[in-house]
Amino acid sequence: xxxxGPPPWTDEAPQLSRWIEQxxxxxxxxxxLLAAERxxxxxRFGSTEAQYRLGRLFLERIDAQGRLEGRALLAMAAQGGHxxxxxxxxxxxxxxxxxxxxxxxxxxxxxxxxxxxAPASPVAEAVVPFEVVHRFIDALPPERQRYAxxxxxxxxxxxxxxxxxxxxxxxxxxxxxxxxxxxxAMGLMQLIPETAAxxxxxxxxxxxxxxxxxxxxxxxxxxxxxxxxxxxxxxxxAGEGAVDRFGGIPPFRETQDYVRRILNFYRxxxxxxxxxx
Length: 277
Hints:
- It is a single chain.
- The protein has helices spanning 14-28, 32-44, 48-58, 64-79, 83-92, 100-104, 130-138, 142-154, 162-172, 193-198, 207-224, 229-238, 240-246, 253-266.
- It is mostly helical.
- It has 2 domains: 14-104, Serine Threonine Protein Phosphatase 5, Tetratricopeptide repeat, CATH 1.25.40; 130-266, Lysozyme (Orthogonal Bundle).
């Protein structure tokens, strides 16, 4: 079977994606037991990607029971529609040995043929990995992909993490440069006329002008709210005045849903400032 690359982009629950990303990072560092723990945490909640990755990892175990459990995990993922797992099961066959970690939630303990894994250590919440976002961009339709790449290219010039800017553009217009909202917000970054004028955007349906204006506003909000992603996102949606008035995220359903979408994409509560150019 081909080597495993970074996990693909997915819209499943952000905690499941985070566990899978942490598992992949741990596996890259050789921390196999930690990787298995993270994959199993996501697999318990039905993630076929986690079941597939844990199955592949279990196939490397030196004990026969572990390899049986690996085959069972691949079969679970295949039954859930995971395409790579379907192909893998054609080689490994089915098994019914459900791993204890799926039943109890206890961290898996086992030995590999390689050197012993380092002990598990806590993993802090991190921003969605660059590799995952690249796969998200690659999966977009070509006409939207070019605008996502425009944001990716311009964001560092405004000291904005392009992953955060992409989250905003996705929530605002889904990368549609012709989008217009009921409140007359326009273009890729959905600038209302006042915001466009404030940041020098003369032609809001010009994609590059619109993105530059939106990034200028995001940079201003991130500085104003000390890099707090939720507050910056809430202000972008409802205005900084509303955030000030309510002392945090305003109690508007639209704004709260919007902030949730941003955090689900970006994953982390604090903005990561790109290196200065």
